[in-house]
Design a protein that fits this description.
By secondary structure, this protein is of the alpha+beta class. The protein contains 2 helices and 4 strands; from the N terminus they run E-H-H-E-E-E. Strand 3 and strand 4 form a beta hairpin.
Length: 83
């Protein structure tokens, strides 16, 4: 199972963060994490593509900090641009 877009401002959404009400999105995150049968891959963009040229740097979703460290393995992918 894949959960994509797990960045603050996307999941939880910016409106929920600004309103101080992220509980419903926290429940949605919990459902996604607990529905994975064997493996769960969670990804998030480092740069928001909608922020215009250069983009805006994004942080991982605050919900990722709530996962026990012994339950996951962090994988960082390094990009190589060989134009």
């Amino acid at each position: 199972m894949f959960l994509i877009g797990a960045a603050d401002g996307q999941f939880p959404g910016r409106r929920a963060i600004e309103a101080g009400d992220v509980e419903e999105e926290r429940r949605l995150f919990y459902v996604a994490v607990t529905r994975a049968k064997n493996e769960l891959y969670i990804s998030y963009p480092k740069v928001a593509s909608r922020a215009g040229p250069g983009g805006m740097m994004l942080n991982p979703s605050r919900f990722l900090d709530e996962l026990p460290e012994e339950l996951y393995e962090e994988l960082r992918i390094k990009r190589s641009y060989g134009w």
